[in-house]
Amino acid sequence: MEAEAARGAAGIYPVDILEDDPEGFREAALAYYATLGEGTPASSVFSLPTGEQVKLDASSVCFCTVHRDEPQHKILVLVNPQDTKTVVAVYAKGCWWSTEDVLRTSDPAREGLMKVQSFGERIVLFILNVVIFGRLERNLDDDDMFFLPHSLKEQAKILWKNGAAVGFYTTKAKGGLCGDGTGAGYVLPVFDTVFVRRKCRRQGLGLAMLRDFCETFQGHEALGISCPISPAMYQVCRKFLVAHPEERGRLWEVEPPGAWGQRVSIWLKIQLQHASLLD
After folding, report:
1. How far is residue 78's CA from residue 92's CA, in Å, rounded to a whole number?
2. Is residue 210 a contact partner of residue 191, using CB atoms and an 8 Å limit?
3. What is the C-alpha to C-alpha distance for residues 274 and 267, in angstroms, rounded to an integer?
4. Cβ distance 130 to 168 under 8 Å?
5. Which run of H or of E encompasses 124?
6. Which residues, 6 or more positions from 211, have their beta carbon under 8 angstroms from its beta carbon?
7. Distance from first CA to last CA of the chain, Å, rounded?
8. Phi, psi of 37 (to 5 degrees)
9. DSSP assignment of 45-107, as one string?
């Protein structure tokens, strides 16, 4: 396991070396999992950042589905023996990588907001969404949203900063189906889910993602943000619309599919909230 840890230390990370081959990735993981069922040497352990060692055997690993609409796309993960819902490592390219190494990159071109395209980037999105936000950085007492694994068809951008993935946002495309079992499609592009890691908050990154969304869909008269909008996201919207008054008539809080009866002006809502506080 020391050799595996050295891979990350040497600046080699999964997102930069994985082939865009979900089926091959799954088959390799299944083959490795089969060897665990036959028993592993006592020396086969993975060292956590805390110094604790997790034995690599069939009881400490499981498969996770990367996309909610493509159950065959799976990754093999190692879980914390003290909390079996917390993922601590991912199996890729013949070895285990800590979740933090899965989020890192050795490619200097990965900087800023970049569209998710490869399977490796989809794994990064999954770790950020389901593992980091879903288990490690979510305060259940707050009004944080809970994100399910994303659809393969969902458009997403990862925010890379100083060699690591620190956030993401996803969008629903105009015309894209609102959900399984429905023929209704979104009538406008929608800013759907957004997340920034705790250590990188209060740096204007949420604002940068909202700005990027508006610029990406510059030719559209109306843009949506999925309802309900969290209190933190309302603050981002307020700052953005104060700085960009030309966008005030374009941003709407929407319920699917975003027709006129399913949208509310975000700027109007902010103004009403402000007036209520003054009263």
Report:
1. 12
2. yes
3. 11
4. no
5. helix 119-126
6. 240, 244
7. 62
8. -65, -20
9. EEE-TTS-EEE-SGGGEEEEEEETTEEEEEEEEEEETTEEEEEEEEEETTEEEEHHHHTB-S-
The residue with tokens 């005030």 is 248
- Indicate yes or no: pTM above 0.85: yes
Q: How many other C-beta atoms can be found within 10 angstroms of the C-beta atom of residue 79?
A: 18
Per-residue pLDDT of the chain (279 residues; tens, 9 = 90+): 443 544 555 578 999 999 999 999 999 999 999 988 776 555 588 988 778 888 888 889 999 989 887 888 899 999 988 787 889 999 999 999 999 999 999 999 999 999 999 999 999 999 999 999 877 776 544 445 455 677 877 899 999 999 999 999 999 999 988 876 667 899 999 999 999 999 999 999 999 999 999 999 999 999 999 999 988 899 999 999 999 999 999 999 999 999 999 999 999 999 987 776 665
CA distance 32 to 150: 26
